[in-house]
Inverse folding.
């Protein structure tokens, strides 16, 4: 036994428990408070139940073992085996000297003294007690009926209170639901944000306004009323707001645009008033409204009239930001990916003074983002971050973070000690196209898919202004039976007419290969045809890259009088619409004929790539280019 004790002590010393309280003091403090409250509640209910049950069972007294006949009881009294007799009405409780308890019944309306005398027993030789327990018995019966009902009701009341949780009562609908982040409670800083240097600089100035207001007021500068973050999803708008909360030496109130809306009329504007009232009391402070397009869309476009709940909430926001009552030392941050839908009155200077535009990161921005998110993950020496940044053109910050997380999951699944380049490559493909799918396909289906993807690859390789092929595969991912990856080599800012035309030719390479090899068309080219048609139509109606000239023939975004913004349908004649359709068809037909011509010229290369795909399923870019260079026409 001593050996076992020593062994346990050694094991405890060898594996010390982590000091969670030292790492997360605020989280542990909340946990301790909750545990204390829960333990107190449980002990209180347990004590009440114990006392009630004890009182109930004490009223009922000890339970007799059984019932005996009166003649047996009288014989036991004569034999001096009975210690005491209790009398309750016509019921006798007989306690024997060995401690056992039995019950018996006497004749009604006959006293126990008379029964003893008739049996030639001296009443003075026996201890017996007459107990009037009618009142106690009545209370016991009442408690036996009411106790389960009362306990059930208390349990349901406790459940309803717990279910309600933090929900407001009927009188608190107008209270703001904003989350308050005090100083030190938000651990995200500007160092955790990468790839958006210009946006960081704009918001760093806002934070500096709050930290050092005298420096700016000395030069006559006023604090910006608001900053609007606009950009595609995943570019870091909410992350930047969290960084402001972590850097600012001021209270930070966060609320989503949808939280202002309820089924009750007037709740949105009431919550907006309460939010600004609370922020003004804590001034200088910051308010962050995420997805502001939920309440900030342009007025006058709806069908519900001027008393629409959303419009009333927007009106209240406009008044609070810059109304008759001055709003000092409260800065409003807002984020949206639909800046084109916001009301002009909300966008004007004096309300949102700054528009911070966030775009997809360039190659240097992607390097910074990868450097931030790679911390805490072991990587193999084969990982080249410059190559990774070039491989991920078009990825947002959220895509890059998800890619590294997927790479870590793939490495852990294969029991690796570090993440290598193959894991990152597979994760990047998975983020954009989805996971691999093993679908049952016939030999003909596999051959059709192989020729389709080989057509894309061969046509792309033959076009001078197209980027190089990165991978060709007939492994199903997402909704596609195969794919041809052609990632851009660089961040493309301007699109030229020649590059757009070659893009359409590349998209139609799969359909052209089907026609050349099988003299048949399949439904697998539907997505390619849709993308090619979209590009061609934009060239005609938006970019002015057709024989119709530099005319925008699409729907217009117009700003009419009184600041109303609305989408005006395209005002073109039926004759011009027919010309647009003819130009689109002309572009697509010419590109398709060019794709067919390229594949007829390179038929042997098409067959070789398709055969390799049927055998190996996937061809990397280096192997594909080697096959294209070594094979003959």
């Amino acid at each position: 036994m001593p050996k076992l004790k020593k062994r346990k002590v050694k094991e405890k010393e060898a594996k010390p428990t982590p000091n969670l309280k030292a790492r997360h003091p605020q989280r542990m403090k909340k946990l301790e408070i909750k545990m204390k409250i829960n333990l107190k509640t449980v002990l209180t209910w347990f004590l009440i139940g114990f006392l009630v049950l004890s009182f109930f069972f004490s009223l009922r007294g000890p339970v007799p073992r059984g019932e005996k006949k009166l003649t047996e009881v009288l014989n036991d009294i004569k034999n001096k085996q009975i210690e005491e007799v209790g009398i309750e009405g016509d019921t006798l409780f007989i306690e024997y000297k060995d401690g056992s308890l039995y019950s018996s019944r006497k004749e009604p309306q006959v006293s126990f003294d008379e029964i003893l005398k008739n049996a030639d027993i001296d009443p003075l030789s026996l201890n017996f007690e007459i107990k009037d327990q009618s009142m106690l018995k009545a209370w016991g019966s009442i408690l036996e009926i009411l106790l389960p009902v009362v306990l059930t009701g208390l349990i349901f009341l406790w459940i309803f209170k717990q279910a309600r949780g933090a929900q407001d009562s009927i009188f608190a609908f107008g209270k703001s639901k904003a989350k308050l982040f005090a100083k030190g409670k938000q651990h995200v800083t500007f160092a955790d944000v990468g790839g958006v240097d210009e946006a960081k600089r704009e918001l760093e100035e806002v934070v500096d306004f709050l930290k050092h207001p005298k420096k700016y007021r000395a030069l006559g500068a006023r604090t910006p009323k608001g900053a609007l973050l606009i950009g595609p999803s995943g570019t870091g708008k909410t992350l930047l707001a969290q960084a402001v909360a972590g850097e600012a030496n001021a209270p930070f109130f966060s609320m989503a645009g949808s939280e202002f809306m309820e089924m009750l009329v007037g709740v949105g504007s009431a919550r907006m008033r309460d939010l600004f009232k609370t922020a003004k009391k804590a001034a200088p402070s910051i308010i962050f409204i995420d997805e502001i397009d939920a309440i900030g869309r342009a007025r006058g476009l709806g069908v519900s009239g001027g008393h629409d709940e959303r419009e009333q909430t927007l009106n209240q926001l406009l008044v609070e930001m810059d109304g008759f009552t001055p709003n000092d030392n409260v800065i409003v941050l807002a984020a949206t990916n639909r800046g084109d839908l916001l009301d002009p009155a909300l966008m004007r200077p004096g309300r949102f003074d700054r528009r911070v535009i966030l775009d997809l990161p360039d190659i240097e921005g992607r390097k910074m983002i990868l450097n931030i998110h790679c911390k805490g993950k072991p990587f193999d020496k084969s990982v080249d971050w410059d190559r990774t940044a070039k491989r991920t053109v078009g990825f947002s910050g959220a895509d890059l973070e998800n890619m590294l997380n997927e790479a870590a999951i793939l490495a852990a699944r294969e029991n690796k000690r570090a993440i290598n380049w193959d894991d990152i490559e597979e994760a990047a493909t998975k983020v954009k196209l989805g996971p691999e799918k093993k679908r049952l396909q016939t030999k003909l289906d596999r051959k059709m898919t192989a020729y389709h993807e080989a057509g894309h690859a061969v046509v792309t390789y033959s076009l001078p202004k197209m980027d190089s092929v990165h991978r060709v595969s007939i492994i199903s991912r997402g909704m596609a039976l195969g794919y041809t990856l052609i990632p851009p080599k660089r961040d493309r800012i301007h699109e030229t007419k020649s590059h757009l035309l070659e893009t359409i030719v590349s998209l139609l390479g799969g359909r052209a290969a089907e026609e050349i090899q099988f003299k048949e068309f399949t439904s697998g080219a539907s997505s390619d045809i849709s993308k090619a048609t979209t590009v061609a139509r934009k060239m005609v109606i938006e970019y002015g890259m057709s024989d119709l000239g530099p005319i925008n023939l699409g729907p217009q975004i117009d700003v009419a009088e009184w600041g109303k913004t609305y989408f005006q349908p395209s005002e073109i004649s039926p004759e011009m619409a027919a010309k647009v359709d003819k130009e689109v068809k002309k572009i697509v037909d010419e590109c398709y004929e060019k794709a067919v011509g390229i594949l007829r010229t390179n038929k042997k290369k098409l067959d070789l790539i398709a055969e390799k795909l049927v055998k190996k399923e996937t061809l990397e870019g280096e192997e594909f280019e080697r096959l294209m260079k070594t094979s003959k026409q």
